[in-house]
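Table S5 (text form). Sequence records supplied for joint modeling of the two-component complex.
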Amino acid sequence: MAISTSPPDYDHRNVSSLLLDIAALLMSSGAHTERVNRNVRRIAYSLGYDIELFFSFAGITLTLSDQESPHLQHTAFRRVTGYAVNLSVVSAISRMSWKASVENWPLVDITQEVERIRSIPHYPRMILLIMISLAGMAFCRLAGGEVPAMLLAGVATAIGFTARNKMLASGHNLALSIAAAAFIASTISGVGLVFHWGEAPELAVATSVLFLIPGVPMINSIIDLMHGHIIVGQARAMQGIVIAFAIAMGIVISSALLGVHQL
Amino acid sequence: MSGLLLEKCVWAALAAMGFATLFTTPLRAFWATALLAALGYGLRGTALNLGLDLLTSTLLASCTMGLLAIQFAHWVHTPTTVFMAPAVIPMVPGVFAYRSMMGLMEMSQTSTFSPELLMQTISYGLNTVFILLSLAVGVTIPSLLFKNRSVKNIRFLRTKKSRV
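The corresponding structure-token record, covering 427 residues in total, follows.
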């Protein structure tokens, strides 16, 4: 049996488990598929392995083969559970993949770094609430709203956002949470429409639900389709459409309830 | 007129920063998000003032943002989409989407609706879809133009030493 000098031999299972951890973490944090492919491949090469990846929306399949002895192969599958955007994770893994391949990190270092990246927090809830309300007001201003509509949109956004977070945290269905948040936000901003506040009160309704728009799934869907990851691209587009229809449902119910035909 | 556009650029930057917070963009990339959002919005407004249609102006703005993002990625050490995704959000046609949906609602509630309503609803809906597509094209531009190499290997401005 030949003694392999470099690179060091790892257990196939540990390596594939680590690579799938990274791939699933990237997918669920909002990286597009080609980025996941590139980053995982880069790390695999630096550890001395060739990989083949198959992506679908629900999970990732990986076949690992040793560069020294290609007949040894190992295939594993990992589910991607839940998509919650965290672009700090995407950025951190991208940097790690470069460092790991340039400085030839061993497996242990990469595992530790992945654990650190996994625990990167979101911004504090209060700051998030303030920023998203300001964004709601900004949207209203960009659409041409006056000060009363802006204030209404800001308040509606803040309350709708809190409702969405509460529902998602207690484990409700994503589409239901979004429909409920859209309903609450558009009911609050619809008050301006009932009492005819300001010049164009319907702008407040239209912009108070914009914090729910599926920006990252939509953008990633187009990027994936353009790179040829058709299956994942379609799935992401469908997810975006489901969210858009959930928002629409919330607005429709609230406008029926308030008895306003805003156009 | 330009004063009003300038004010709107500031609001666009604010909206983009709100979404950057929601998407947990690293703090060091916030200035890139805000600057790109303001630039993109300003460019689109200027193009509209010069008489271009909305779709072409949006495509122009988003592609310019995409090209600038390649250089910005080196300065803030993140992939381009990390600050580009929140930066294009202020240009999302929310009011168009809302009006097209309300038009559909109105059509479904009465059996006799005017052809103007139908025309207007279709126009709003198509505008929504195509503006979204042109925004996404702008975000994709960095990886499409350079044959899908990593942005790390693309340098417009020479620097002494490449940092990781």
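Note: Chain A touches chain B through 60 residues (CB under 8 Å).
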